[in-house]
């Protein structure tokens, strides 16, 4: 087995740094991967070690949110490890204790949910195939500034799409690509898993409403909507099913610290803000019901002109307030619907959201008990206890069952898992990067698919590539996975690693 950083033979990173003009030839990223040996993205698929059970499992997301899926997988205990049989109580041993994983967060290009808004789903699909290329390939950069890549990363034996938007728009694309490449690799997406989890909370003859909280891209794709009705019918449920969706404009971006959605240093409304507001037609803040949102107005968690009693130009500036906005907006949607069954469950259809499952839970309880005068506003449309569905649980089960069927278990160790993130390629003269080192919004969504070049570099997680806020969140929300991230960095002394990070309070 090749081990990460086991050798430091440097290869020049061949990139196509050409302007995206009409004169530049349009190429399909899949063709480049399969047929252009001179390209950075080329993979010799004929030599791929397809039957090697010792390979790690690949998992990718548009950012750090997919770590909630990975955390659920590696902490799962749904089976007996000695005979691989399902057990409601497990056996006290992690199901994937002897597996290792390679994780990629495409943070430079996130949030994936916005690409459909800009009419760039073809560009999104290109990003997704590049994510897969990284998992299949062996190349990565040691640091943000390096001009030369290393080539000792291991390929993978299965792929988990930890991103709901990528599952909706890219799962079929990935499977078609792997078929064309003659690579028999299992691809597991989170949408099917989330659907099964939500329906498991409903009796077969019960009338129920299911909510889907996801990115705008996932909602626009109707991936969950269609899958819920398809599975409901397939399972021969006889009750009435209603499905309502809430596009979480800005929430995933705020969780990952995207400056267009959140800026903790700001003290007044910002011109580059893209989250919910009075003038945002897709995500309007209704000042007529401003009290229902129950925003926290202190410490610049909300930015506004005027006074708190009569605010204008209101902007959300904390993750908790984004959650408040979207839950109330969703419940208002249910109030306006005609005679619907009570809300029984909500699928957290974005991998970032489970980081804040407690805040979702607390807000739903607050809204169940919310009154105006003597009248409960939302009780007629919601159950007292609304189940929050994290698709990661069923994803873990599906992955384990695949390894069982294929007899494809490893004999390695979780501590050997690897963690990578994408960053804008500063060596690419075509990339337009802002003062904080991120792509500008216009550039991020203004590019076109087919102009194949290295927009990003894939580098290990480090204190350079992750913000302090993100590191604190990971350490508190997914402590076991965070220890694996630190372990990955600690065994690679050349890295600017997390174990040297300032103390996390």
Structural features, described:
The chain is α/β, with parallel strands linked by helices and 505 residues long. It has 2 domains: 11-186 and 392-497, Rossmann fold (3-Layer(aba) Sandwich), CATH 3.40.50.1860; 193-389, Rossmann fold (3-Layer(aba) Sandwich), CATH 3.40.50. The protein is built from 14 helices and 16 strands. A 6-stranded mixed sheet has the order 6-5-2-3-15-16, sandwiched between helices. A 4-stranded parallel sheet has the order 8-7-11-14, sandwiched between helices. Strands 1-4 form a two-stranded antiparallel ribbon. β5, α4 and β6 form a beta-alpha-beta unit. α2 packs across α11 (392-406), α5 (190-199) crosses α7 (223-234) and α13 crosses α14 (479-490). The longest helix is centred in the middle third of the chain and has 17 residues, at 164-180. The two termini are 38 Å apart. Residues 1-22 and 493-505 have low confidence and may be disordered.
């Amino acid at each position: 087995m090749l081990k990460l950083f086991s050798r430091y033979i440097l290869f020049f990173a061949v990139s196509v740094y050409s302007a995206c003009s009409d004169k530049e030839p349009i190429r399909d990223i899949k063709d480049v991967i399969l047929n252009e040996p001179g390209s950075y993205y080329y993979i010799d698929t004929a030599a791929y070690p397809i039957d090697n059970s010792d390979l790690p499992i690949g998992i990718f997301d548009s950012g750090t949110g997919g770590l909630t899926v990975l955390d659920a997988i590696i902490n799962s205990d749904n089976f007996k490890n000695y005979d691989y049989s399902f057990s409601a109580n497990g056996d006290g041993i992690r199901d994937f204790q002897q597996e290792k994983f390679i994780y990629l967060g495409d943070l430079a290009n996130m949030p994936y949910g916005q690409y459909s808004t800009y009419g760039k789903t073809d560009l999104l699909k290109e990003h997704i195939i590049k994510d897969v290329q990284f998992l299949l390939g062996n190349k990565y950069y040691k640091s943000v500034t390096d001009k030369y890549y290393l080539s000792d990363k291991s390929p993978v034996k299965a792929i988990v799409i930890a991103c709901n938007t990528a599952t909706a728009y890219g799962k079929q694309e990935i499977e078609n690509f792997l078929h064309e490449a003659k690579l028999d690799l299992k691809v597991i997406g989170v949408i099917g898993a989330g659907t099964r989890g939500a329906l498991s909370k409903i009796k077969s003859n019960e009338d129920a409403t299911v909510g889907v909280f996801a990115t705008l891209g996932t909602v626009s794709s109707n991936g969950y909507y269609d899958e819920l009705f398809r599975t409901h019918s397939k399972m021969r449920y006889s009750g009435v099913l209603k499905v309502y969706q809430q596009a979480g404009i800005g929430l995933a971006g705020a969780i990952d610290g995207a400056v267009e959605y959140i800026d903790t240093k700001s003290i007044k409304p910002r011109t580059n803000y893209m989250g919910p507001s009075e003038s945002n037609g897709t995500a309007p803040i209704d000042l007529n019901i401003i009290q229902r949102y129950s925003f926290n107005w202190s410490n610049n968690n909300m930015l506004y002109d005027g006074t708190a009693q009569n605010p204008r130009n209101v902007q959300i500036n904390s993750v908790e307030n984004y959650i408040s906005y979207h839950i109330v907006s969703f419940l208002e949607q249910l109030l306006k619907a005609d005679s619907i069954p009570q809300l029984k469950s909500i699928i957290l259809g974005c991998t970032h959201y489970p980081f804040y499952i407690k805040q979702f839970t607390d807000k739903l309880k607050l809204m169940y008990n919310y009154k105006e005068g003597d009248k409960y506003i939302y009780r007629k449309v919601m159950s007292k206890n609304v189940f929050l569905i994290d698709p990661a649980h069923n994803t873990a089960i599906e992955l384990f069952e695949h390894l069982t069927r294929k007899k494809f278990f490893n004999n390695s160790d979780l501590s050997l898992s690897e963690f990578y993130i994408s960053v804008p390629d500063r060596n690419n003269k075509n990339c337009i990067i802002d003062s904080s080192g991120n792509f500008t919004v216009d550039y991020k969504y203004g590019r076109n698919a087919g102009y194949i070049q290295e927009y990003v570099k894939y580098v290990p997680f480090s204190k350079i590539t992750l913000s302090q806020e993100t590191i604190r969140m990971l350490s508190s929300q997914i402590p076991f996975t965070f220890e694996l991230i630190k372990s990955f960095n600690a065994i690679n002394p050349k890295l600017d690693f997390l174990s040297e990070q300032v103390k996390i309070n």
